[in-house]
């Protein structure tokens, strides 16, 4: 079968052939329809330090996908051939304390589809059946293909009560933009989003941000005055992984504010701890999606009218994957979809 794989230890990604994956006793085989390119795939493409230390050369990459069930392991119940599914890309161990307590997103032995085990940029993907999520009809293939990053946004945004709250999001990448949409849908008041990329800020506005801020040109104090916010933000969602953005956020938070951290800083990150201590801030780290609470919430948000379509700025047939990666790397995109059936 056709796959996109990291064939050489250098910048790039290559179309290649691989054997169709085995379907174990508890697995399902998914025939892939559409995939989306994640920031992680771009890291692997660029072959940065993290990828070099994490991803074996030869790995089939990709973990954002939608497809249909094409084969079912003997031990699997609850799925039928032809079911339309997406799937959780974190494969958990099932035997650690958190897994056994039903907190699978906190599993300490997580393996990543398309990172530590063969991924979804392939005609077929085999995963444990209990990592698959059956999709309701209202969720289109394009939406389902981005459920993985949408889940990061939903998990982060719904960590704290947003109703009537003032929310600051730092980083208008795809995940920050989707978090703005979730905050709007959930009933937040001001949803201020920062970035240094005007293309993305414009898209974030379409997605539901009430005020966009290019942090190279404007500062948050002025924006807070403009909006009549004398005290500060109630909820902060850090989605850039950039130290200056996080430090600006800490300064802009109200006392007792709540901050969820999704963005991954490239290394150590210094902050002004006095902001945390004297304001009594609550800080929560976020990894992945809750299995499967986040997935049910995502489906329900779409069924209740949340619209993510402005996010999909490019759709290409799989053979044009190089162009897809080039667009993603330019920063001038929302999500880029690669169609395996086109
Ligand atoms: P992305 O890289 O597309 O978005 C980050 C955005 O931050 C970019 O648009 C960039 O222009 C912006 N930015 C840069 N400097 C800034 C500044 N000074 N102020 C404000 N914004 C600034 O990434 P994404 O795919 O949207 O993901 C968001 C973050 O979440 C990334 O750091 C990613 O690595 C991380 N992530 C974490 C998890 C997790 O489980 N914790 C999962 C997926 C992604
Ligand atoms: Zn575990």
Automatic annotation (TrEMBL):
Positions of Zn(2+) 1 binding: 38, 63-64
Any one Pfam family match given in the protein's UniProt record, by short name: ADH_N
Residues covered by the Enoyl reductase (ER) domain: 12-338
Cell compartments where the protein resides: Cytoplasm
One example of a Gene Ontology biological process annotation: L-threonine catabolic process to glycine
Signal peptide stretch: none
Keyword Cell membrane attributed: no
Site location (Important for catalytic activity for the proton relay mechanism but does not participate directly in the coordination of zinc atom): 148
Enzyme class label: oxidoreductase
Cofactor note as given: Binds 2 Zn(2+) ions per subunit.
Annotated binding of NAD(+), by residue: 175, 195, 200, 262-264, 286-287
PROSITE patterns cross-referenced by the UniProt entry: ADH_ZINC
Cofactor: Zn(2+)
One GO MF term: zinc ion binding
Enzyme Commission code: 1.1.1.103
Catalyzed reactions: L-threonine + NAD(+) = (2S)-2-amino-3-oxobutanoate + NADH + H(+)
Family assignment from sequence similarity: Belongs to the zinc-containing alcohol dehydrogenase family.
Protein name per its UniProtKB record: L-threonine 3-dehydrogenase
Organism: Aliidiomarina soli
Gene: tdh
């Amino acid at each position: 079968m056709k796959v996109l794989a990291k064939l050489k230890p250098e910048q790039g990604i290559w179309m290649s052939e691989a054997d169709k994956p085995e379907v174990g006793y508890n697995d399902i085989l998914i025939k892939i329809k559409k995939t989306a390119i994640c920031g992680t795939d771009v890291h692997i493409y660029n072959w940065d330090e993290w990828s070099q230390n994490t991803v074996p050369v030869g790995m089939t990459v990709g973990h954002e996908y939608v497809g249909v069930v094409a084969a079912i392991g003997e031990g699997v119940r609850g799925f039928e051939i032809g079911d339309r599914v997406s799937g959780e890309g974190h494969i958990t161990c099932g035997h650690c304390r958190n897994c056994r307590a039903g907190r699978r997103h906190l599993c300490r032995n997580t393996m990543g589809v398309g990172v530590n085990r063969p991924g979804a940029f392939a005609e077929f993907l085999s995963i444990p059946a209990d990592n698959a999520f059956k999709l309701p009809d209202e969720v289109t293939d394009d939406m389902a293909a981005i459920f993985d990053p949408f889940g990061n946004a939903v998990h982060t945004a719904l960590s704290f009560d947003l109703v009537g709250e003032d929310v600051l999001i730092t980083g208008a990448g795809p995940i920050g933009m989707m978090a703005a949409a979730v905050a709007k849908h959930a009933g937040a008041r001001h949803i201020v989003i920062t970035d240094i990329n005007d293309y993305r800020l414009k898209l974030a506005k379409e997605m539901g941000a009430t005020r966009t801020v290019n942090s190279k040109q404007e500062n948050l104090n002025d924006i807070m005055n403009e909006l009549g916010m004398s005290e500060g933000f109630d909820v902060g969602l850090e989605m850039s992984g950039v130290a200056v953005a996080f430090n600006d956020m800490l300064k802009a938070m109200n006392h007792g504010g709540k901050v969820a951290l999704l963005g991954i800083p490239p290394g150590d990150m210094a902050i002004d701890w006095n902001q945390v201590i004297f304001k009594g801030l609550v800080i929560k780290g976020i990894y992945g999606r809750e299995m499967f609470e986040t997935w049910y919430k995502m489906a329900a948000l779409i069924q209740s009218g949340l619209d993510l379509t402005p996010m999909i700025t490019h759709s290409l047939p799989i053979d044009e994957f190089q162009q897809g990666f080039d667009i993603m790397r330019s920063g001038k995109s929302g999500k880029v979809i690669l169609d395996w059936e086109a």
